[in-house]
């Protein structure tokens, strides 16, 4: 049995099915690049049959990264699904089709209305069809954790016989417990005659908070692929969190005795990227990547850490790329210092990006006395997550206070509309058109947002609004995160500034930009 565990990331597929976490193709490409740099073995890029947009996203990820990682497309046991997935993956070095069909009694009776013999027949036919396109085929008996063991063994054996090289055993609804799941994997190893010809995989949901524990139990039982997502994103309560799985296997190597290819110092930066793109904030006490993951408040703990780090830390912050609030730079620091610190923090930026970050840093250093690592990270994230935006904030003015109706005046620039402006030369220039408007609201933030809506000509519903301090101190940067509902779809935006109203306005404008530029696509079909 291999001592290497394959990490199969489904952030772009199952993670995107979290409410409000839909991503554009450019955003998926950014995450895919981060996953490749992280060392993920398999990237499930999407469900190509669900919409033209999803097909194009899978195709784009496959074409760009298909020689650096296995790129996988999901398909039901239907000819059209499999053919569409094959088309999206065609021509790349490392394609995989992931075929699934439910097997549990409740799914057979109420969803599929198929008998056991029909399930087996469909499994064999569609695995063989997928095999006719590519060698690397994965099969998942959906809701395996609630399937009768004898029938599960039969389906898995027939799938391997038909050509499946990986058999994934999903706990689709998060029903299993660690011992239960351990027994399922062990039973398959003992009773499926050809199980040695395939890799056993796990796909655990977190409905009972046991996704990571169940996945680790499966590894202990012999599974050698774990399906997971960054930050545990996924339907309902989410999936097993990649960062927790990887660090559990690494930290407790003495117990599990297995390895992964994950470049663990990139875990925190990848977590921040996914959080920024999806708008799903990471809770402060989240294991591995949370803001408090390496914080020690109690005096006894602090005393122990000062004497010997391992008294209260089982992992080093640098092992996962954790960035605290260490003071590193001041307003007189130059470009070389910024460039050096960016590299030390684990980022690879081109010269244009470094120049933008440097200018942002100088502006920030004029506003606050001390600039911390966390501030630098926020500036970097704010830059590398920038997408093409039509509307840009030029300036705003607010009037608010006790006994005053909050009022905001806003000026926006429309990058898509130009006007001629002759200058002193013989050649006239074109400049973007600017617009101004004003509005009142329940508070200054509400007034600014309504004024921007009046200019752009849309009305959105604010569904979520959060502000947090990036670092410590009264002059800390505020990070605002918003989610809006526009024409039935959720969009999010995030921005930072020492002025929380400005951060809120910029975040709201990012969400509005996404909303007005978005093209409607079909809703994704839930998978395993």
Write up this protein.
The chain is of the alpha/beta class and 528 residues long. It folds into four domains: 6-278, Alpha-Beta Barrel (TIM Barrel), CATH 3.20.20; 292-322, no CATH class; 323-384, Helicase, Ruva Protein, domain 3; 391-517, Double Stranded RNA Binding Domain, CATH 3.30.160. Helix content is 39%, strand content 22%. It has helices at 25-38, 52-65, 79-89, 105-112, 116-131, 149-162, 178-191, 211-221, 242-251, 253-256, 267-278, 299-307, 335-344, 351-367, 373-384, 444-456, 500-517; strands at 6-9, 42-46, 70-76, 95-102, 137-142, 166-171, 199-204, 225-228, 327-329, 371-372, 391-399, 407-421, 429-440, 461-469, 478-486, 489-497. The strands form four sheets. Strands 1-2-3-4-5-6-7-8 form an eight-stranded parallel beta barrel, surrounded by eight helices. It has a three-stranded antiparallel beta sheet with strand order 11-12-13. A hairpin with an 8-residue loop joins β14 and β15. α5 packs parallel to α6, α7 (178-191) packs parallel to α8 (211-221) and α16 runs parallel beside α17 (500-517). It is globular, with a radius of gyration of 25 Å. It starts with 5 loop residues before the first strand and ends in an 11-residue tail after the last helix. The model is unreliable at 520-524 (pLDDT under 50).
């Amino acid at each position: 049995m291999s001592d290497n565990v394959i990490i199969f990331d489904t952030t772009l597929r199952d993670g995107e099915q979290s409410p409000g976490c839909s991503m554009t193709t450019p955003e998926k490409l950014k995450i895919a690049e981060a996953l490749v740099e992280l060392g993920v073995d398999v990237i499930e890029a999407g469900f190509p049959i669900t919409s033209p947009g999803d097909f194009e996203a899978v195709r784009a990820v496959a074409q760009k990264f298909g020689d650096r990682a296995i790129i996988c497309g999901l398909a039901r046991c239907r000819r059209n699904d499999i053919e569409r997935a094959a088309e999206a993956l065609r021509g790349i070095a490392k394609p995989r089709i992931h075929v699934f069909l439910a097997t549990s009694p409740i799914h057979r009776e109420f969803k599929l209305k198929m008998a056991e013999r029909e399930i087996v027949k469909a499994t064999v036919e569609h695995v063989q069809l997928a095999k006719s396109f590519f060698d690397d085929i994965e099969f998942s008996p959906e809701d395996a954790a609630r399937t009768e063991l004898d029938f599960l063994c039969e389906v898995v054996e027939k799938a391997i016989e038909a050509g499946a090289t990986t058999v994934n055993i999903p706990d689709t609804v998060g029903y299993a417990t660690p011992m239960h799941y351990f027994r399922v994997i062990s039973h398959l190893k003992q009773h499926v005659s050809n199980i040695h010809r395939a890799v056993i995989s796990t796909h655990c949901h977190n409905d009972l908070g046991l996704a990571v524990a169940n996945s680790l139990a499966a590894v202990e039982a012999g599974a050698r692929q774990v399906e997971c997502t960054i930050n545990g994103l996924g339907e309902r309560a989410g999936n097993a969190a990649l960062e927790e799985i990887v660090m559990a296997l690494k930290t407790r190597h003495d117990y599990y005795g297995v390895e992964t290819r994950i470049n663990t110092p990139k875990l925190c930066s990848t977590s921040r990227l996914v959080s920024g793109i999806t708008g799903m904030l990471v809770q402060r006490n989240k294991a591995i990547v949370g803001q408090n993951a390496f914080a020690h408040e109690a005096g006894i703990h602090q005393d122990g850490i000062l004497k010997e780090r391992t008294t209260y830390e089982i992992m080093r912050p640098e092992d996962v790329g954790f960035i605290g609030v260490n003071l590193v730079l001041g307003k007189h620091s130059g470009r070389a210092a910024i460039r050096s610190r960016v590299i030390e923090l684990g980022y690879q930026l081109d010269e244009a990006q470094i120049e933008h970050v440097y200018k942002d840093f100088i502006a920030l250093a004029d506003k606050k006395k001390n600039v911390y690592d966390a501030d630098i990270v926020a500036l970097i994230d704010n830059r590398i997550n920038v997408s093409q935006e039509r509307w840009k904030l030029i300036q705003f003015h607010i009037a608010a206070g006790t006994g005053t109706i909050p009022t905001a005046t806003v000026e926006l620039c429309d990058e898509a509309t130009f006007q001629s402006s002759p200058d002193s030369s013989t050649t006239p220039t074109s400049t973007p058109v600017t617009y101004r408007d004003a509005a009142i609201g329940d508070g200054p933030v509400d007034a600014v947002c309504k004024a921007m809506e009046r200019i752009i000509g849309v009305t959105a519903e604010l569904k979520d609004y959060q502000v947090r301090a990036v670092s410590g101190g009264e002059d800390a940067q505020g990070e605002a995160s918003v989610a809006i509902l526009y024409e039935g779809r959720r969009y999010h935006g995030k921005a930072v500034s020492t002025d929380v109203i400005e951060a809120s306005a910029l975040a709201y404008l990012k969400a509005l930009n996404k909303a007005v530029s978005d093209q409607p696509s079909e809703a994704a079909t839930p998978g395993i």
